């Protein structure tokens, strides 16, 4: 009888040991899963935040594409009435006029003349008939940019002619 | 013997409880995954690209209609009015050629359709049906006739 008891006791001890190991293993696996979960959550959150920032900047730039051509500093007008176009002469001098606007630091703004097609040459007051792009603003950063563009109507007040232009806004990370 | 049988029953009950615990954990993980899928992966589609495309369509049409032809004083609006005359094929061909030239250069993914009074001047939509229309632009000719011009861009 006592032998059976001893055997049962030894068996119980082994079972208790096994259960302790099992508990340790479960806790260990749980911690690993917890860490994995935390890493995945962090990654998802970081990616989500990056996407939010990108979408916010994109929204800002889309808005800008909408309102930039109608700013008084660049839009063309006739007898004080604004018309749906951008004045090339105003664009040439826009840098000074737009300097204090809030979007100015991190965005590059370029207006290209796409019709009639011309050679690649930056516009100045002396070459308006042959040039094809005006750099309204150049941001300080130059790498990793995103670009949004839209066609715009350009007006040359010297020759009284309209051209088709492409307004390009680049923003940097 | 009875004691051993009771122990066996107890073991079975513990096994059942562990299975229940496992099932609850699986259900909790599944619910958590569902939340992750709902809030992180299946984000509602933004309306921004559509709004931007609409702005682009309106700007492109405005620029296109106003522009002067490189040869002479004629504007694109005047040329488009001429296309409504079915006998004037020269004007129609010239308008088609210049419209394609302008819109191809306008970075519109070369997928657009320009319509003057329901007559297609340039169509590069290739059967693409998901289109965004600009607002109608009305050209008045000799102060009487109104010509409706519309530009469609592909939503791809």
Structure characterization notes:
The complex is a heterodimer of chains A (173) and B (156). Chain A is α+β, with helices and mostly antiparallel strands. Helices cover 44% and strands 28% of the residues of chain A. Chain A is built from 3 helices and 6 strands, in the order αββααββββ. The longest helix of chain A is centred in the first third of the chain and has 66 residues. The mean pLDDT of chain A is 87. Chain B is α+β, with helices and mostly antiparallel strands. Chain B has 2 domains: 43 residues; 107 residues, no CATH class. Chain B is 53% helix and 18% strand. Chain B is built from 4 helices and 5 strands, in the order ααααβββββ. The longest helix of chain B is centred in the first third of the chain and has 40 residues. Chain B is rod-shaped, with a radius of gyration of 33 Å. The model of chain B has no long low-confidence stretch (mean pLDDT 85). Chains A and B meet through helix 1, strand 5 and strand 6 of A and helix 2 and helix 4 of B.
Order of helix and strand elements from N to C terminus of chain B: HHHHEEEEE
Q: Tell me, what's the shape of chain B?
A: rod-shaped
Distance between the termini of chain B: 78 Å
Average pLDDT of chain B, rounded to a whole number, is 85
Number of beta strands of chain A? 6
- What does the average pLDDT of chain A come to? 87
User: How many domains in all of chain B?
Assistant: 2
Largest beta-sheet characterization of chain A:
6 strands, mixed
């Amino acid at each position: 009888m006592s032998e059976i008891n001893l055997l049962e006791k030894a068996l119980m001890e082994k079972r208790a040991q096994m259960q302790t190991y099992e508990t340790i293993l479960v806790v260990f696996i749980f911690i690993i899963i917890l860490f994995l979960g935390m890493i995945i959550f962090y990654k998802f959150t970081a990616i989500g935040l990056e996407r939010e920032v990108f979408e916010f900047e994109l929204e800002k730039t889309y808005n800008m594409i909408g309102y930039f051509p109608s700013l008084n500093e660049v839009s063309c007008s006739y007898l004080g009435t604004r018309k749906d176009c951008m004045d090339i002469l105003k664009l040439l001098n826009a840098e000074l006029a737009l300097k204090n606007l809030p979007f100015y630091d991190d965005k590059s703004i370029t207006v290209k003349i796409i019709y009639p097609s011309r050679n690649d040459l930056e516009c100045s007051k002396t070459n308006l008939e042959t040039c094809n792009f005006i750099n309204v603003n150049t941001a300080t950063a130059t790498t990793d940019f995103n670009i949004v563009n839209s066609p715009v109507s350009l007006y040359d007040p010297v020759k009284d002619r309209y051209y088709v232009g492409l307004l390009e806004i680049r923003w940097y990370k | 013997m009875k004691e051993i049988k009771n122990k066996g029953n107890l073991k079975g009950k513990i096994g059942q409880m562990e299975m229940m615990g496992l099932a609850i954990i699986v259900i909790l993980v599944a619910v958590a995954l569902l939340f992750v899928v709902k809030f992180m992966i299946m984000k509602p589609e933004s309306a921004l690209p559509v709004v931007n495309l609409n702005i682009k369509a309106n700007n492109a049409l405005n620029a296109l209609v106003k522009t002067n032809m490189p040869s002479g004083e004629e504007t694109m609006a005047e040329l488009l009015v001429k296309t409504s005359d079915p006998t004037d094929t020269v004007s129609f061909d010239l308008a088609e050629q210049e419209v394609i030239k302008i819109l191809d250069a306008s970075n519109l993914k070369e997928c657009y359709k320009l319509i003057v009074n329901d007559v297609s001047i340039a169509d590069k939509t290739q059967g693409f049906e998901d289109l965004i229309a600009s607002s109608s632009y009305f050209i008045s000719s000799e102060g009487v006739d109104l010509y409706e011009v519309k530009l469609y861009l592909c939503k791809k």
